[in-house]
Amino acid sequence: MDKQEEDKREKYKKKTKARIPTAEIWNTFFFAQVLRSFVLLTQSILRKYIILPSLIIAKNIARMLLFQIPEWSEDLKDWNREMHIKCTYNGIQLSEREFPKNWLTEGIQIRILFPFCLKPWHKSLNSYY
Asked: DSSP character for 102?
């Protein structure tokens, strides 16, 4: 077991060392943090309000065409659980509606809690009998 733990530690150290040059590259460009911040916000908004609802609609229409019962309520309940939390570049959670004064220059991260995963079908209560 000691050998396995050492291997895990070595892999973690290698991954950490690989991330450092990537972070340094972002810091070398003048507008890199600004660009990265806008891309993250755009991706978050597209995912939450355009892509996922479109997939839910397409899935349930396909279920209706296949003469299956649509699962609107289950999918919408799972989708509403997904939360996008804005954090500083260091991982400190920010207010949901407000941005700090220097968020463009320092950068932000977006943490997704309870990420939505589209399921082809949900478990039925009748399947337990």
From this structure: T
